[in-house]
Write a structure and sequence with these properties.
single chain, Alpha-Beta Plaits
Length: about 500
């Protein structure tokens, strides 16, 4: 945790860290004995690929823990004691069926402005990139002290027991460098993620992070962000050498709109004082059906506003997640989402626009329509506004990526060697260093209308960079003349992140 103390205290516990999470707090990585399936003799019984630990190499009788299950505390009653938010409001929430609720909260590395993992690393392997704010691990400098695992309050630092190195989310930085969103953003079928540029005053970060009262940390971080449309900010950016492409992207940033202009996006646990850069739109519970069942108009904004205090997902719970317990910003965000729903319903039914709906939440009708377009109708280029790296910086960024990709593994990109095991214990093919993907080649492959292809039978097949058109040569093993399959080596481009918005929606909510 960030409260682990200063440098002297951390160095004193370098070889015996009492705060280090147990492997059970994450999960024991495993693979399966797939060779048992291929080598089993013919018979009446079906062979089974038994799980095997990637740490000890021993067979595992049962798999009882996993990365996904670890985060799904709400779905496991036996884990309710681990929910630190629930512990704070236990008197308001009882673990009873009629009061149960659920919503998904995808947690990734926050790529904080004031990252505690960077401050915790004794070897200086963790660093925040100046060019885009992405936090990475230099695998060459990492010595496996695991202080970053203890220091990250979001528990998004991992220790690879096979390589002895720390790993984390990297925000798919090779994609970001060519103006493409992260893989998790682009592949989200709900279109819930937004990626954009946020400008902030670096000189005010320490002061904002040291705000005495926890409930004031959210507005303090808002005060750090700079308005890209402010002429003074534009002049300061030009003096600082910030490229014009970045300023244009900042002015079109959906992240800035959701956080600053509309104030419907909130930070995750600001009380950690790391100033996170992944913000969330809180979920508007499916209250319409409940209001309608009581005999009232469930779509009327007055009724929706009155129901916010009695949401199935308590506002106090959301406040402990996003605003250090202050319910006012959460209520404001939920009221604006409810007002947008009521406003669009009138338009869809052909009724006259009621400016009072927008005014009741401090908006104009134009602002309400703009927020609706961003949350419901935004196209690809509106949800992901990412400036490309300057042409002169491409080689430098590539070489940095080659050293700093924190998802490297034995035999994988950046680790050297070859023929080693992949991250899941299976062959991963020959090493594919990041620098072989030039700036223009990667950009062209993602934006061209041609189907993805590879050069020759030994060409690379990279599913992370596949454009989804056609079946590229080499994606599937080929058969030679004797009927045996010829394997195709695969490489992987691994990457990193900068600033993101995730919109949380309950499973069965009806959205405009």
């Amino acid at each position: 945790m960030p409260r682990a103390g200063g440098r002297a205290r951390r160095l004193a516990s370098l070889f015996a860290n009492p705060l280090l999470p147990n492997i059970r707090d994450y999960y024991e990585p495993w693979t399966y004995d797939y060779n048992d399936l291929f080598d089993a003799p013919a018979g009446d019984d079906f062979p089974v690929a038994a799980p095997r630990s990637l740490i000890s190499g021993q067979r595992m009788d049962t798999i009882t823990w996993s990365a996904n299950w670890d985060d799904d505390l709400g779905g496991m009653p036996q884990h309710q004691d681990d929910d630190v938010v629930l512990q704070k409001i236990q008197d308001k929430v009882r673990m009873e069926l009629e009061q149960s609720f659920m919503f998904y909260l995808p947690r990734i590395c926050e790529h904080c402005i004031n990252p505690s993992c960077v401050a915790s690393c004794p070897s200086g392997a963790l660093y925040k990139r100046v060019e885009d704010g992405i936090v990475l691990v230099d695998q060459d400098r990492c010595r496996g002290w695991r202080m970053c695992v203890t220091g990250c309050p979001y528990k998004k630092m991992y220790f690879n027991h096979r390589t002895g190195k720390a790993e984390k989310c990297t925000f798919c930085f090779p994609r970001i460098e060519v103006g493409l969103p992260t893989v998790c953003s682009e592949t989200c079928v709900g279109r819930l993620r937004y990626v954009g540029v946020l400008l902030y005053d670096a000189d005010r970060v320490a002061e904002a992070a040291a705000t005495p009262r926890e409930q004031d940390l959210y507005p303090a971080q808002l005060g750090v962000f700079l308005d890209p449309n402010d002429p003074e900010v534009a002049r300061a950016a030009e003096i600082a050498g910030i490229p014009h492409d970045w300023m244009r992207a900042a002015r079109r940033s959906p992240v800035y709109d959701l956080i600053v202009n509309y104030k419907v996006a909130l930070p995750l646990h600001p009380e950690y004082r790391t100033m996170p850069m992944v913000w969330y739109v809180p979920p508007l519970s499916p209250v319409v059906e409940a209001i309608t069942a009581s005999g009232h108009d469930g779509e009327d904004h007055i009724n929706l506003f009155g129901a916010i205090d009695t949401l199935r997902i308590p506002v106090s719970y959301l406040a402990e997640l996003f605003t250090a317990g202050d319910p006012l910003p959460v209520e404001t965000a939920l009221r604006r989402l409810a007002a947008m729903r009521a406003h669009r319903r009138r338009i869809n039914l052909g009724d006259d626009v009621d400016p009072g709906i927008a005014e009741s939440v401090g908006f104009t009708v134009d602002q309400m329509d703009s927020m609706f377009r961003l949350l419901a109708l935004a196209k690809y280029d509106d949800r992901y506004v990412i400036p490309t790296a300057a042409a002169g910086d491409v080689r430098t960024l590539e070489e940095t990526a080659l050293r700093g990709c924190s998802l490297d593994y034995e035999g994988g990109p950046g680790m050297g060697g070859g023929g080693g095991s992949g991250p899941f214990g299976e062959a991963s093919g020959r090493p594919a260093p990041l620098a072989v993907e030039s700036f223009h080649a990667l950009r062209d492959r993602h934006t061209s209308d041609r189907a993805a292809d590879t050069s020759g039978p030994r060409g690379r097949v990279n599913l992370l960079d596949w454009d989804g058109r056609g079946v590229p040569q080499g994606m599937f093993p080929e058969r030679n003349g004797e009927g045996t399959r010829r394997g195709v080596d695969r490489g992987a481009d691994l990457g990193s992140e900068a600033g993101e918005i995730t919109e949380n929606r309950p499973p069965h909510e009806d959205h405009p």
